[in-house]
Amino acid sequence: MLQTLGEWVWWERLWLPENVSWSDLEDTEGRVYAKASQLYGAVPCALCLLLVRYLFERYVATPLANVWEIKDRIRLAAEHNPLLENYFCSKARAPSQAEVRSLCKKTGWPEKRVEVWFRRRRNQDRPGLRKRFSEASWRCTFYLFAFFGGLLALYDKPWFYNLREVWAGFPIQSMLPSQYWYYILEMGFYLSLLLRLTFDVKRKDFKEQVIHHFATLTLLSFSWISNYIRIGTLVMAVHDSSDILLEGAKVFNYAKWHKTSNAMFVVFTVLFMVTRLVIFPFWLIHCTWVYPIELYPPFFGYYFFNVMLMVLQILHIYWAVLISRMLYKFIFSKLEGDDRSDEEEDDSDPPKERNHKSSHMNGSSVRGRASGH
């Protein structure tokens, strides 16, 4: 049964055009071709990147945060209340007004006090500013090296300047060492992000990020096996170009270099719109959608690869909307931080309760002094 399943999975018509077989992609005469087994290298690469990230955040990002005096906001701890804690963990982190009233009856607390408790409890689970800074610093550094490494691997290739060259001799195109390392590093990075998802800063587009990482890994894996490597390297370079500026803008925003952050955000917005909404769909997807069928009849791999590119494009449109909202806030109001982030809430006591506590403390102080005399 396993043999039959393996034969179906590696059926040539799924991965390759007609009249092309796996035997045509065997290494011969010094020409090396991409193989599925080579993708296992992404796993140790991801683990190495996790180690490098740990060292970077501890010995580079943390000292840099100290130099720029980036500090976590002092948070007020939620009062000890087992009933509310159990409700928070098992039912809802943000109860509705009706649920708040029900909890008031059970705890004997006023509504405002219950609402403040939930705000403080939610804030306790949110990552601090220094964690956000460290994460953004790491991503910015990786994207910077990945982008310029990609340019170094692509600048002297004819398909970088003429997209029709992507399909010259396809799929019998030998693999270059620079392409291998570019793929392994990118796949290792996205795999490391998946492994860190539960620990990294969670944003409003968390589900979209998960879809993006899975789509990217699936796309890269499939393009490697089907020898769509040339177009794959172009897709990676286009994506990395704007991500550098996004993470860099966050880094400077956390450091309160607001003018630098704002300038980088504006440049990022322009570059994102150009690369993700113009170059990606009208050049790269057009290249994968139109040019291949001039050489071969459409096959499963052709449709699958283009569908995965369209999934990425839908995510690009979603993020373009978020970025447009951020740009609107930047121009017409005040933009602070990342609009996708789950920002901290005001966890201060309501005025009446503060006055009550203040009066209670003052009264206790007076009584204490009277007893002392």
TrEMBL record:
<keyword id="KW-0256">Endoplasmic reticulum</keyword>
<keyword id="KW-0443">Lipid metabolism</keyword>
<protein>
    <submittedName>
        <fullName>Ceramide synthase 3b</fullName>
    </submittedName>
</protein>
<dbReference type="GO" id="GO:0046513">
    <property type="term" value="P:ceramide biosynthetic process"/>
</dbReference>
<keyword id="KW-0472">Membrane</keyword>
<feature type="domain" description="TLC">
    <location>
        <begin position="131"/>
        <end position="332"/>
    </location>
</feature>
<keyword id="KW-0444">Lipid biosynthesis</keyword>
<dbReference type="GO" id="GO:0003677">
    <property type="term" value="F:DNA binding"/>
</dbReference>
<keyword id="KW-0238">DNA-binding</keyword>
<feature type="domain" description="Homeobox">
    <location>
        <begin position="71"/>
        <end position="128"/>
    </location>
</feature>
<keyword id="KW-0812">Transmembrane</keyword>
<feature type="transmembrane region" description="Helical">
    <location>
        <begin position="39"/>
        <end position="56"/>
    </location>
</feature>
<dbReference type="GO" id="GO:0050291">
    <property type="term" value="F:sphingosine N-acyltransferase activity"/>
</dbReference>
<keyword id="KW-1133">Transmembrane helix</keyword>
<dbReference type="Pfam" id="PF00046">
    <property type="entry name" value="Homeodomain"/>
</dbReference>
<feature type="transmembrane region" description="Helical">
    <location>
        <begin position="263"/>
        <end position="283"/>
    </location>
</feature>
<feature type="transmembrane region" description="Helical">
    <location>
        <begin position="180"/>
        <end position="199"/>
    </location>
</feature>
<keyword id="KW-0539">Nucleus</keyword>
<dbReference type="InterPro" id="IPR001356">
    <property type="entry name" value="HD"/>
</dbReference>
<dbReference type="Pfam" id="PF03798">
    <property type="entry name" value="TRAM_LAG1_CLN8"/>
</dbReference>
<dbReference type="InterPro" id="IPR016439">
    <property type="entry name" value="Lag1/Lac1-like"/>
</dbReference>
<comment type="pathway">
    <text>Sphingolipid metabolism.</text>
</comment>
<feature type="compositionally biased region" description="Acidic residues">
    <location>
        <begin position="339"/>
        <end position="348"/>
    </location>
</feature>
<dbReference type="GO" id="GO:0005789">
    <property type="term" value="C:endoplasmic reticulum membrane"/>
</dbReference>
<feature type="DNA-binding region" description="Homeobox">
    <location>
        <begin position="73"/>
        <end position="129"/>
    </location>
</feature>
<dbReference type="InterPro" id="IPR006634">
    <property type="entry name" value="TLC-dom"/>
</dbReference>
<keyword id="KW-0808">Transferase</keyword>
<feature type="transmembrane region" description="Helical">
    <location>
        <begin position="136"/>
        <end position="155"/>
    </location>
</feature>
<keyword id="KW-0371">Homeobox</keyword>
<feature type="region of interest" description="Disordered">
    <location>
        <begin position="337"/>
        <end position="373"/>
    </location>
</feature>
<dbReference type="GO" id="GO:0005634">
    <property type="term" value="C:nucleus"/>
</dbReference>
<dbReference type="InterPro" id="IPR009057">
    <property type="entry name" value="Homeodomain-like_sf"/>
</dbReference>
<comment type="pathway">
    <text>Lipid metabolism; sphingolipid metabolism.</text>
</comment>
<feature type="transmembrane region" description="Helical">
    <location>
        <begin position="303"/>
        <end position="324"/>
    </location>
</feature>
